[in-house]
Here is the input.
Amino acid sequence: MAPTIEQARAAAQRMCDAAGVTLLDPAHPLRDVIVAGVALASRVGGGSWDRDDVAQRVSVTLPGAGGALVALRAVPVVGPILAEAALAAGLGRTVISLSPAVWSDPLRLLETVRHELGHAGQIARGGLPWCIAYILGAEARAAGEAPCYAAGMAVRVRLGGESTAAAAESAMRSLQGYGLDAEALALAAGIIASARATLDAGEDLGGVVAETRAALESVGWTP
Amino acid sequence: MSLQEIGRWLSSDWTHAVAALGVLALGYALAWAAIRASYERVVGRPMPRTRLVLALDILADLSVNVPGALNRLLRSTGRDPLFLPAPPAPRPPAAPSGRSGEAGRATVGTLVLLALVGALGLAACPRAREAVLDTQSPRVACVGGSQRCHDGAPEVCSRAGRWWPAMPPRDDGSPRVCAGACVVSDAGIAHCAPEVSP
Here is the structure.
């Protein structure tokens, strides 16, 4: 049985809580600030997303502002107040901001949260240098995005019943939007081919599907 | 590029205008800092604190550092500043270059400038960019496009010669591994597969 939107939202929240990540829904006030920042970064970096695109379709993971909040706290008078406000908003840890496009579709919501949690893991592993490498290098963007799209593929195939060929094709289409050169696209294609072979062999992608199923079952979903 | 073309580019998207404003503001702050530093070097004392100099200082602060500008405004109008004043210390006989008497704020400005210059340098210099990428996965002698199983998980080699994991990491950053086995197919694709019993 397909999960309901309520079950998908509750499962998404559980997965983010377990990962120590703040999940912002599309109506969260900070979403506007994030959208403006992503649109600006995309334009300045030569990307093709305009503000409306970002507002409607782009979900994003941002590193936590823990270190910056420590520095902010040192500013007299307003610093501690602003730092507390940021902490209360969950900005001390990694933040996932979801787009309206995925918020009302159970499968896309789960697919997207699994994708973004992959980025949260990359940030946990690589820290600030990973974020810099992601911004500066097409190779790091390919190496960062392709495994996360692979996680989304696993959800679409195992929970949504999509074919591996269609899921892989969709992932490669999405990867075209990250400013990857031919070499980076070849790397991404290799990673997607590996994920497709794993799914074709009937295997999980290192536990991505099992963790998603477990989160759904914990909120009352029955397969 | 003509002025009309620049105008069209600026008005075509709000982000262009914001980016251009940021670059102009930074340019102004740098130019004003250079004028002040040059004046102090030539004359041997700080610029007189006239209203015009104060206004230009605040404008320069606003260009790169809004809290610093607010601090200066509060202090100049006799109110409690945001930041505590620097403790009195014996000054060296010769005035240092830069804005005298504003050590804390100048440091913030310097850090901002250094960060910007560093980011631009990294973006522009392929060798620096590769060095940043090497911090995540060092280059080795692998063949671009080849795949392997490493510690029970598939990896793909980039054209630059770095191995990258084909599966996303766990939430805590630790690597995922295949539940069964990792195998490399005849087509050279590394992937997870059911464990084969011996």
Remarks:
- Residues 3-124 of chain B form one domain.
- The longest strand of chain B covers residues 153-157.
